[in-house]
Request: fold
Amino acid sequence: MSTPHINAKLGDFTETCLFPGDPLRAKFIAEQYLEGAECVTNVRNMLGYTGNYKGQRISVMGSGMGMPSCAIYATELLQHYQVKRLVRVGSCGVFDERLDLNDVIIAHAAATDSSFNRQQFAGLDFPAVADPRLLQQFLNYADKSGSSVALGLIFSTDNFYGGDTALWPLFRKFGVLGFDMEAAALYSVAAQFNAQALTVLSVSDNLLSGTKLSAADRQSGFATMIEFALNALTPSA
Reply:
């Protein structure tokens, strides 16, 4: 079995899949954290792996950059490969002076400037929210482990370089912590398939201070976020 964008066989993916944007981050997670990891798909170099974390089977696959790419891979994983749980582990820019580089954010919902969800939802506004059960699981783990995480809204944008800084006060007023490019679409696609989805982000840029991570750090860093997500997903391991 294969799809236009995934050449794995049925059963190659587990029900739980970490979902970074960068396929090389998927490779890094598989090689550094999963035992016995096997590459199960490599179409267009969008890499996916399955292995073991503390005795539990788990998959990881890149989603690409932006909502259209994320939606393609989420749809194929959920519709054709029996994945039930997608956890985006990505990066974000923030405009909150309380947040530093590599801080971890859990996005319980996502606003957006994209028309993607309206196209999916007959032109109507769709509430792009995380699955409450999965969100609660991660919050419970954060409390139990003493992990420092920020919980809030994220703004999923189609425009990486052209954001209107005049809107930042409005976003802050409504509790938006920062920007990503995928969460809003991930949440709507998961809803269509009655699947669980959550977005966990690591701060790569602080737009107020101008500090940012290097390209290498974005690709292979974010250890705090990755370990938090893996441990939250396998609480009994």
